[in-house]
Write a structure and sequence with these properties.
Elements lengths: L7 E4 L12 H7 L4 E4 L11 H14 L2 E6 L18 H20 L3 E3 L11 H21 L3 E5 L14 H15 L4 E6 H6 L4 H8 L3 E6 L15 H10 L6 E3 L24
Parallel strand pairs: 1-2, 1-8, 2-3, 3-4, 4-5, 5-6, 6-7, 7-8
Helix pairs in contact: 1-2, 3-4, 4-5
């Protein structure tokens, strides 16, 4: 058990960001990783030119890296936004325009997990109207994911850093997962269990794991406080990942932490090189 027993991937939207996007897969490979994940890389547009999608696919292929997780369009992320799908008007339309683009790109690179960030509450908008819109859009996203053999992920964030985001507990995200699955009958909506976010919310992580491991489709980690690499804070991440494995979780663990003031390539010393390649 322990870290060497896990399957890790690197999030290239928070690590290796000192490099241009197309150089990051090779940098991850040079650090020993073969699996990577990404937030939607084109924050200005849900429908980038095909040439840009092709260039990213080529960069992944040339590096020998496998994209295992991709966010749908989520607005300005990093930035003030936390998703687009529950935001009435233009942002919801942009999310819808992105659904098939993201699903088709995922299919082209063999990515089987698509994360749909819920979006912030909007001043003056009825929360019930936002939730109804969210369900409509999540159903469309779940069907698109199913078409390409992927799961749809729903993530809980943390209230201190995302005060306008309504899904700031594991039960809140699970409720949405259950609603989507009930609406589609597909069963491909899953929980994205981020140990950093849940710890920031003060949740009992062992209890969350016990309760929701079976509904979890992906896991992400960072230490707390600081959102740095494992060992820079006080979260017992190695033990918690063992608990997830014991609870039946067999998926990957995304490294979604900040490198601090060190180059990204130097913030993996907590993980033996032999344990970095996907298996």
């Amino acid at each position: 058990m322990g870290y060497p027993d896990q399957r890790f991937d690197v999030n290239l939207s928070i690590l290796f960001t000192e490099l241009p996007l197309l150089e990051r897969p090779a940098a991850a490979a040079a650090a020993g990783f073969t699996a990577v994940e990404l937030w939607w890389p084109w924050i200005e547009t849900p429908t980038p030119p095909q040439a840009e999608l092709d260039a990213l696919k080529k960069a992944l292929d040339d590096a020998g890296t496998h994209l295992v997780g991709l966010n749908f369009y989520a607005g300005q992320l990093p930035g003030p936004d936390r998703g687009a799908l529950s935001v009435p008007g233009e942002e919801s339309d942009r999310f819808r325009a992105n659904i098939e683009v993201a699903a088709d790109f995922a299919a082209s690179v063999g990515c089987t997990a698509l994360n749909a960030l819920y979006g912030n509450r909007v001043e003056g908008a009825d929360p019930q109207v936002q939730d109804a819109l969210a369900l409509e859009n999540l159903v469309l996203a779940a069907r698109a994911a199913d078409r390409v053999g992927a799961i749809l992920l729903v993530e809980a964030l943390n209230k201190p850093e995302s005060p306008l985001y309504p899904l700031v507990s594991a039960p809140a995200a699970i409720e949405v997962v259950d609603r989507v699955n009930a609406a589609t009958g597909l069963g491909n909506a899953k929980f994205l269990l981020d140990l950093y976010h849940l710890s920031m919310n003060g949740e009992d992580l062992s209890q969350v794991i016990k309760a929701y491991a079976a509904k979890t489709g992906h896991v992400q980690i960072a230490d707390n406080p600081g959102r740095g690499a494992p060992g820079t804070g006080s979260l017992p991440l190695e033990r918690l990942l063992d608990e997830l494995k014991d609870a039946g979780y067999t998926g990957r663990v995304g490294l979604e932490y900040k490198p601090g003031d060190r180059p990204s390539a130097e913030v993996f010393d907590w993980l033996p090189e032999t344990a970095r390649a996907d298996r």
